[in-house]
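Posted in: Protein Modeling Q&A

I'm a second-year student putting together a small comparison for a lab meeting, and my supervisor asked me to include a predicted structure for CYTH domain-containing protein. I've never done this before, so apologies if this is the wrong subforum. The sequence is pasted below exactly as I got it from our records. If anyone can share the structure token output, I'd also love a short note on what stands out.
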Amino acid sequence: MATPQEIERKFLVPALPDLSAARPSALRQGYVTQPQDSVEVRLRQSDDTHVLCLKSGEGIVRTEREITIEAAQFDLLWPQTEGRRIEKTRWTGRLDDGHTFELDVFDGDLAPLVTVEVEFGSETEATAFAPPAWFGRDVSANGRFRNKSLALSGATLIRELFA
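Accepted answer (user: helix_wrangler)
Welcome! Here is the predicted structure, written out as tokens:
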């Protein structure tokens, strides 16, 4: 059995595109693991779905394993994420080339940050991807824009970006 992988690229979004054909979801996630841990253990609630996720690795190709959990299990573990949380609205839609995009509009201390991610079937496909004009700077390789980093020290990054 192959190791589940996530191959994605992430970009800043300087101005919101037309999202009339996209689907919004309210999303909150928190990290159970500590900042120094090399493996991420994350809880995510997206509308009425609750997920426990383990991620490891660096760059645009990472190992990812997810399991759906019950709301009561989520609620039991959620206090362990205090101080390591993010909230955002995720807009999911299709690009003209057929790829699915996930555009995140961050709330709270991370506002007005907006990012967009696109997942790929291979690293070759990810490298060859030509982003549409509304995508901004590619931050795929910048660890400061990973959700775990944003949950831990994103407010500092936001002050630097939007000062």
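A couple of things worth pointing out for your meeting: The mean pLDDT is 93. The CA atoms of residues 102 and 145 lie 15 Å apart.
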